[in-house]
Amino acid sequence: MGGVNLLPVAVALAALIAIGAPATWVTLTVAGLAMGMMIFLMASGLSLVFGLMDVLNFGHSAFISFGAFIAASTLALLSGWVAADSLLYNLLALGIAISAAGLFGLVAGWFFEVVIVKPVYQDHLRQILITMGALIVAEQLILAIWGGSPLSVPRPAFLQGSWLIGDTTIEIYRVFAFLLGFVAFLGLRYTLKSTRIGLLIRAGVENREMVESLGFRIDRLFAGVFMVGSALAAIGGAMWAGYETLITPDLGAEMMVLVFIVVIIGGLGSIEGSLLGALLVGLTGNYVGFLAPKLALASNMILMMVILLWRPQGLRPAVRT
């Protein structure tokens, strides 16, 4: 629990001193944590694919965009349940929207891995070219299906509004986004560290031939990793759509910069590193945006440069033994 894991706490304490107003600091901190958890959902899959499978997937942002638009369209179709004064209907609408985004991510991830990525394993240059081409095609599909105009995203009634605690305002949706991201982190960590599938994945990364000689199909395991990573990206996009409430086809491309920053500063192949990097990015962006708005766009790039100068391999890269 110590060492680099305390960096988000250190950043938060420094921001408290700089801001000076506890109520404002709490609001910014909750917003930063929620933003960090949503970015974690998008980045964790890319970190696994990049770090464990050695695949440079520049088309990852397409899953983010499709997840956002599919969730928005699903919520619009279920507008009666979304606006109903019933927690059950609200939960059903939200669950169906997130499930639709995740299911699309699974299916599209399988197709992407088998048809596009698999033929170019071990060739990074071709991976970059072919995944960038796939991203361009995906963006054009979004324009063809949903058009280029911004799309409004309704929030379920139970996630609208804020809690007022003293002088502090805490948006309900941000608390929900944080909890969902944290549950996803626990599930991923348990799967990779404490299950047979996780053991096989890590063993396959270290010595693929040995694992295959024992009768296991590593190609299927890696396809599964790719599918889960794509589904997480789509779910992250769905959550971000509700966070923004107004989305455009450029959503995935805009978020991809933050996703790559998180993967780089967290360390390749590390779920814990992705979480740590995402929280740092979310908190830093909110604090700097409040204290020095002109530096908001550059804050995360500066954060990445500082961390890489200190730890070139990232904060918590996956350790291979």
Helices, strands, pairings?
Blueprint: H1 7-19, H2 22-53, H3 60-77, H4 79-83, H5 87-117, H6 124-146, E1 151-152, E2 162-165, E3 168-171, H7 172-194, H8 196-206, H9 208-213, H10 218-244, E4 246-247, H11 251-266, H12 271-291, H13 296-310
Antiparallel strand pairs: 1-4, 2-3
Helix pairs in contact: 1-2, 1-12, 2-7, 2-10, 2-11, 2-12, 3-5, 3-6, 3-10, 3-11, 5-10, 7-8, 8-10, 11-12, 11-13, 12-13
Architecture overview:
The protein has helices spanning 7-19, 22-53, 60-77, 79-83, 87-117, 124-146, 172-194, 196-206, 208-213, 218-244, 251-266, 271-291, 296-310; strands at residues 151-152, 162-165, 168-171, 246-247. The protein has 321 residues and is mostly helical. Strands 1-4 form a two-stranded antiparallel sheet. A two-stranded antiparallel sheet has the order 2-3. Helix 1 (7-19) packs antiparallel against helix 2, helix 2 packs antiparallel against helix 10 (218-244) and helix 3 (60-77) packs across helix 10 (218-244). The two termini are 22 Å apart. The mean pLDDT is 88.
Proportion of β residues?
Answer: under 5%
Any idea what the shape is?
A: globular
Radius of gyration: 20 Å
**Mind summarizing the main beta sheet?**
2 strands, antiparallel
Instruction: State the end-to-end distance.
Output: 22 Å
Unreliable spans: none
Q: Specify the number of helices.
A: 13
Could you tell me the mean pLDDT? 88
Helix content: over 70%
Strand segment tally: 4
> Order of helices and strands, N to C?
HHHHHHEEEHHHHEHHH
Structural class: mainly alpha
The strand order across the widest sheet is 1-4
